[in-house]
Write a structure and sequence with these properties.
It is a single chain. The chain is α+β, with helices and mostly antiparallel strands and 420 residues long. The protein is built from 14 helices and 10 strands. The chain is 46% helix and 16% strand. β6 and β7 form a beta hairpin. α3 packs across α4 and α3 crosses α5.
């Protein structure tokens, strides 16, 4: 199984280079429909990537720290980050030179090579606090191969008359046809998929039970001494900046997938910092042991999601790549996992009113949706390697591949044929 990993870079922009950098990103955005997209595809390991400029007015809420102008790069990829960075700067060095010449300390032209470019990028790496993968263990190559297999089988099944023939016989005919083709040699070997780690979940539950004498007083103190004094978001959609919302909506629903970029200010104090760090540990544990079958807290539309704490844990970024519309995505979170959203994001400034860390907050749908849109920022360049595939498609395609080599009962074969 292949490890998918995140990379986040926060690179300071040279003074006076903001407008030039913004123009370059706009050019790259247009280029994604042609040669730039092809360059990304050549990497063969890149699932998603984005660039955007982060500055002080990116934050909807006031921050106590000075915020320098920075170029943010985020990617989801197969393998290790060193190989990933080398691939990025090797395949299109001219693009990275044009972008990062606008950033502080980028190597001068005579000293630019794969090594110096790679080292420069990784110098600005920021640690990920929590990272979710919707289809864990599946490389980009596997996702693309299994989609090709599904399309081939569907065409074969649709091009023949199977009336009155048992499902098992049809499935065996499909298997025989697939195995005739050398390009599907890889399909003869089932691919392992991750399963729920019951041992890890039991251990986590036992630890939580042991820590209840600490957790319960902590939640009570958090509520009575912090949450009751918080300034909360009571904004409505009509109160948001119309120009910003329109710009965000212009880039949405253009394909079957969308992206979401959010920047937030973490509430001040050690209590809030320890709380959010505890929530990130809790999220990492659940993601590793429970959310391994294409659903994050019951939501089957998220390809990748990431939380990043930065600026000495004073600020937070949230990135996600998902299927469907923005409104559907957020409403799914509210309906199925509002407690999880509230547990993390209630530790950021101006979140809707929360009680005891996990209640209220996201369940206040009107104000939560306004808060989410108000803290969202424009992603200037966004790349998806398989924008026509949903998480359900990806998971289903692996099932097709694995069931192809198995001996199935008539009932199982009927389910197999319904996967197309």
């Amino acid at each position: 199984m292949t490890n998918q990993n995140p990379l986040t870079l926060l690179t300071p922009v040279r003074e006076g280079s903001f407008f030039k950098l913004n123009e370059i990103l706009e050019k790259f955005k247009v280029g994604l429909h042609s040669n730039l997209n092809e360059k990304f595809n050549q990497l063969g390991t890149l699932h998603y990537a984005r660039w955007f400029i982060l500055q002080e007015n990116s934050f909807r809420d006031k921050t106590t720290l000075p915020v320098p102008v920075r170029l943010v790069f985020s990617s989801n990829f197969d393998g290790d980050e060193t190989t990933h960075a080398e691939g990025l700067v090797s395949i299109f060095p001219e693009y990275f030179d044009e972008l990062y010449e606008c950033c502080e300390g980028y190597p001068e032209a005579p000293s630019r090579n794969t090594e110096s470019r790679k080292n420069y990028l990784l110098k600005w790496k920021v640690k990920t606090a929590a990272f979710y993968v919707g289809a864990p263990g599946r490389s980009l190559k596997q996702i693309q191969q299994e989609d090709q297999l599904k399309r081939f089988i569907r065409n074969f099944v649709n091009s023949n008359n199977w009336h009155g023939i048992p499902a098992v016989q049809i499935k065996n005919a499909v298997k025989e046809e697939v195995y005739k083709h050398p390009e599907f040699e890889w399909a003869k070997k089932p691919e392992p998929v991750k399963s729920t780690n019951l041992g890890g979940m039991i251990l986590m539950i036992c630890i939580i039970i042991l820590l209840l004498p600490i957790i319960i007083p902590w939640l009570l103190a958090l509520h009575f001494f912090y949450e009751r004094k918080d300034k909360n978001c009571y904004d409505k959609r009509s109160q948001l900046d119309d120009n910003l919302v329109k710009r965000l909506e212009e880039d949405e629903d253009l394909i079957n997938q969308n992206q979401f970029t959010q920047v937030l200010v973490v509430k001040r104090g050690k209590v809030r910092l320890l709380t959010i760090q505890g929530q990130m540990l809790f999220a990492r544990t659940l993601i590793k042991n429970l959310f391994v079958k294409g659903k994050l807290m019951g939501i089957p539309t998220i390809h990748f999601a990431r939380w990043v704490l930065f600026d000495n844990n004073k600020h937070m970024m949230f990135f996600s790549n998902f299927d469907g519309s923005w409104n559907q995505y957020l409403c799914d979170f509210i309906d199925k996992s509002g407690w999880g959203l509230t547990g993390i994001f209630s530790n950021t400034v101006n979140f809707p009113k929360t009680n005891f860390l996990f209640t209220g907050g996201a369940y206040d749908e009107e104000h939560f949706l306004a808060w989410s849109r108000g803290t969202q920022i424009l992603t200037q360049v966004w790349y998806s390697a398989y924008h026509d595939l949903s998480i359900k498609n990806i998971v289903n395609n692996t099932l097709i591949r694995n069931e192809l080599s198995k001996d199935l009962s008539e009932e199982q074969a009927q389910l197999f044929l319904k996967r197309f």
